[in-house]
Sequence to fold (443 residues):
Amino acid sequence: MSVPFDPRPLQEPVSPATARAFRKHLGQTGRLPAGAGTAAGVIIAIVVVIFIVLVFGGVLSAVIGGLVFAAGAQSGTGAALSLTTLIPLVIVVGLAVLVPFFVRRQRAAQAAAWYRLDRFAQANGMTFEPQRPNPPLPGMIFSQGSSRMASNLVRGDRPRFVEFANYRYTTGSGKNQQTHTWGYVAVHLSTPLPHIVLDALGNNGLFGSNLPVTFERDQHLSLEGDFDKYFRLYCPRGYERDALYLFTPDIMARFVDNAAALDVEIVDDWLFFYGKRDFSTLDPATWSWLFGAVGAMIDKFAQWERWRDDRLAAPDAAGGPGVGGAAGGPGAGGAVGGPGAAGGPGAAGGPGAVGATAGPVLGAAGVPSVVPTGPGPAASAAPALPVTPPAGLLRPPPGVAAPGQRLKKSVPWVAIVVVLLIVTVGAIGPIIAFIGGLFAALR
Fold:
């Protein structure tokens, strides 16, 4: 993403021979898993054939029925029966011809799309991968359901790693099985941050959030200005001040202006943009929008990466052992006159006080403490220099304490209530019909 945006390869013409050669190249280089796209092509082909049969089946049946009737009227029932037995055979032959035709057609269209996306990725300083099962990412959508598959992955690593892709997973089984479609953008950060979710209000459904999980209400944090009109922010309890540090007014404005239609998740050292649609497509407008959203935020990530979790700070070193013996305890200051630089034995006449020579002595956090050398009296008369840096200069290490690593999930009560209502209404109908039948029988 460090080169100018160039969408032209997305709409360049691709010959069938070029598409086939590119698909073969993907397989030879290991970038295309065995059988990738074949199952999807077969399913699409079958669906298309069934659609054709449903749409044109009535007309076909009427034509064949008319022919059968006419043949029966002219030649007797024998010819009619012969034509009737041919109908299933004609349907089977038609399916045998149409399904492979549509499978080949689907494979060719998919190979052409992959070729265009690969050319687009190269033109924009990125790389392309057709599919990746079970992407190892920590976002909320990547732990849902089964048959998880990322497709059409376009990724770059400058100025930082970013990945655009489509994502599918399935939930339920049998008649209740459902495939969920998502698009995502994953941006890698240099520092782990607290788990924060921005639930975009503009893409919510009839029953509220379209996110696959719900969070406890007391983790909601209201921000200033118009931000709450576009997003509902969730952060772990106790991390409200940290969220305010991360979401300054200028950053909130960028989210509102560039990503108001996207759900956002910050987890570990990743930032995700989510949408319930494919992101990695051949549509230049979609890519322009996504590149703009990432580009608007990318120069602000350095500000986020300066954040540190104070809960990981080491205990105050000023009163601990080994800080120069400032209070008479054992410490580095004993190098001149014994343990205890100011009040312990040897401060003015203990062993080593006369004519002792000492080099730099390490204090807290490995900071060298300057120790005067020379005759003992002069050394003992010199004031002790501080060896402990101010507490504000001791930054915690990068990371997030356990309470801030994950938001607490809640039960989706709205969905449960809706399901119960549907089940109840469905059960009431037969009951009412049964009671009505009883009353009718008693009359």
Observations:
- Residues 77-123 form the longest helix (47 residues).
- Confidence is low (pLDDT under 50) at residues 317-372.
- Residues 128-310 form one domain.
